[in-house]
């Protein structure tokens, strides 16, 4: 206390004011600033979570729509699917023979096909997820771009 009593009245006031300002700065740095940073970070997280929630709700609506549309679609036999896909890709004239085979295999013979159209047909049957190519033989013909093909499809068991 001798230090304080040795100071003049004006110096004591300056020390009090300076100490008060230092205490205010310390309170801001140690309490207010971290709380502000947490608030800003939390607001950003809330915005991101809201965006995630909107995305998930939209996905749930789409999933319900797909589920209801899937239950309404009728199941097409693999033979009919092959025929429809061949017609859709303009290669039905080259479809020479379809053998349901034994088990879950279907053998299909094509003659004089345009190779590009045949590949589009194969891609479309692969996208259906009901058929998978288990064996494929393609024979090049003398005419450019034409092929003969034999495909063995494996049907998916449900």
Write structural notes for this entry.
The chain is 59% helix and 22% strand. It contains four helices and four strands, in the order H-H-H-E-E-H-E-E. It has helices at 2-6, 9-72, 78-88, 115-127, and strands spanning 95-99, 105-114, 131-140, 146-155. The longest helix is centred in the N-terminal third of the chain and has 64 residues, at 9-72. The mean pLDDT is 87.
Outline of this structure?
By secondary structure, the chain is an alpha+beta fold. It contains 4 helices and 4 strands, in the order H-H-H-E-E-H-E-E.
Unreliable segments of 5+ consecutive residues? none
State the share of residues found in helices, binned by percent.
55-70%
Distance between the termini: 92 Å
- Give the radius of gyration: 38 Å
Shape: rod-shaped
The helix/strand class is alpha+beta
Largest sheet: 4 strands, antiparallel
What is the helix tally?
4
**In order across it, which strands form the biggest sheet?**
1-2-4-3
Strand tally: 4
Q: Report mean pLDDT, rounded to a whole number.
A: 87
In terms of DSSP E residues, the strand content is 15-25%
Order of helices and strands: HHHEEHEE
List the helices and strands and how they pair.
Blueprint: H1 2-6, H2 9-72, H3 78-88, E1 95-99, E2 105-114, H4 115-127, E3 131-140, E4 146-155
Antiparallel strand pairs: 1-2, 2-4, 3-4
Fill in the keyword field for this structure.
single chain, 158 residues, alpha+beta, 4-stranded antiparallel beta sheet, 4 helices, 59% helix
């Amino acid at each position: 206390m001798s230090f304080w009593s040795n100071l003049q009245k004006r110096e004591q006031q300056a020390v009090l004011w300076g100490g008060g300002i230092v205490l205010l700065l310390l309170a801001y740095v140690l309490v207010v600033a971290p709380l502000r940073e947490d608030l800003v970070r939390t607001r950003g997280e809330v915005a991101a979570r809201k965006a995630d929630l909107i995305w998930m709700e939209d996905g749930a609506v789409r999933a319900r729509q797909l589920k209801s549309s899937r239950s309404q679609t009728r199941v097409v036999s693999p033979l009919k699917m092959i025929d429809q896909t061949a017609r859709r890709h303009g290669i039905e004239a080259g479809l020479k023979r379809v053998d349901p085979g034994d088990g879950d295999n279907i053998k299909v013979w094509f003659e004089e096909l345009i190779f590009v159209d045949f590949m589009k047909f194969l891609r479309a049957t692969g996208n259906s997820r009901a058929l998978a190519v288990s064996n494929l033989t393609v024979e090049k013909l003398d005419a450019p771009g034409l092929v003969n093909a034999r495909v063995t499809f494996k049907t998916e068991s449900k």
